[in-house]
Amino acid sequence: MKNASLILGLITLSIIQPVYANENIVVNTKQIQSLGITTAALPSKHSGEISGLPAHVVIPGNQLFVISTPLPAMVEQMLVGVGDSVKKGQPIARLQSPALAEAQRGLLLANVQTQLARDNLVRDESLYKDGIISESRYRAARGLALETQATLSERKQVLRLSGMSDNAIAQLQSGNNLSSSLTLTAPIDGVVLEKTASAGQRLDAAVVIFKIARLDPLALEIQVPLAVSHNIKIGALITIPAYSAGGTITAIARSLTGSNQTILLRALVQHGTENLRPGQFVEASISTAANNVAQWEIPNSAIARISGKPVLFVRTSQGFRAQTINIVNEGAHNSVISGALKGDEKIAVGGISALKSSMMGIGGGN
Q: DSSP labels for 109-134?
């Protein structure tokens, strides 16, 4: 019956031959009903965005630090746990390491050898000037002094990498007090994300104990379909509506991801980070508007194409007006459009084929 009504409506419309002038189609209420044409108010305008994009919350690479054992050691005490906030320089663990005491002994030995080589160099330099010793002996003394100084610098660097500060190294050189106790400290103000060791555990060198990160700002990795990526620019605003967070696009990948033909975008989340967690999956929206051009998201059923151009049928007092539009982003069910619209119009969302057929038949379109 519905098909019969539609055919009857088309026949009625062709008999009445509505006047077409300046892209207007004159139809009355009865014809609209018989043709099954339905209308809806134009949705509220917005700045234009692509919404519902899958995204992954990550930590920017320069904000994540890994703390590991500098030497083989036993964990004596863990001072912080997962989720704790820490300050830069705050002690986070204490270790006992015989290897540290051995490294300190090496520093003290190098210190003594360096001092002895310096004294010998001063003596031989004086003897050489007085012509008592040969130049070769003087050069040998100078070379030995340089060699022992390099060894001392190396021993200091080993202790720095082991977690000792310059002040602690200076105190060791002056006091000759060896210690196997090693304190690990936080490298930044941040939050402890992982703790992989416990008190009493023996660890080899370079074993990860903590991961500490600064969680403001956070980064977002967004998967965007290739078909809509051309509207996205670096600096475009992004929002995470469910968590009241947002930021800007910082990078657009040049290659496609996997078989789903998506492009990876990276964004920096600059506000609302307290509502997000690293590793969390969210849905993001990206602004695509340029120069504040008004845009609307409408159902695809409202869009017709006349001579290859997309149009909307806008309700008028006499019927409908064909309004040419621009499609900013075409989706599976809805599309974002722009055009010379006020925003308070009613548009046809059903029965579009009848209006299109009428317009093409009267206007001689394709």
A: HHHHHHHHHHHHHHHHHHHHHTTSS-
pLDDT at site 365: 37
Angle ∠(8,13,16) on CA atoms, nearest 5: 125
Query: Shortest CA distance to 153 belongs to which of 189, 110, 112?
Result: 110
CA distance 301 to 350: 7
* SS3 category, 294: coil
d(CA 59, CA 196): 19
DSSP code per residue over 21-65: ETTEEE--HHHHHHTT-EEEEPPPPBS-EEEEEEEEEE--GGGEE
What is the C-alpha to C-alpha distance for residues 302 and 299, in angstroms, rounded to an integer?
A: 6
Query: 207: closest CA among 322, 100, 98, 66?
Result: 66
pLDDT digits (tens, 9 = 90+) for 337-352: 888 888 888 999 998 8
Integer-rounded Cα Rg, in Å, for the chain is 38
Residues pairing with 297 in the sheet:
336
> Which has more pLDDT, 62 or 7?
62
Please, are residues 273 and 213 in contact by the beta-carbon 8 Å criterion?
no
What does the pLDDT look like over 78-106, one tens digit per residue?
Answer: 999 999 999 999 999 999 999 998 999 99
| Amino acid found at 89 | G
Q: Are 70 and 203 in contact (CB under 8 A)?
A: no
The Cα 47–Cα 277 span in angstroms is 28
**Confidence band for 195, pLDDT divided at 50, 70 and 90:** very high
Q: Report which DSSP code applies to 295.
A: B
Taken in order of first residue, the domains within the chain and their CATH numbers are: 2-48+293-363 (2.40.420.20), 50-59+216-287 (2.40.30.170), 64-213 (2.40.50.100)
Mean pLDDT for 153-178 is 87
CA 111 and chain centroid, separation? 49
What is the per-residue pLDDT across 252-281, written as a single tens digit (0 to 9) for each? 998 887 677 789 999 999 999 999 999 999
In this prediction, residue 134 carries a pLDDT of 93
**96 φ/ψ angles, rounded to the nearest 5 degrees:** -115, 120
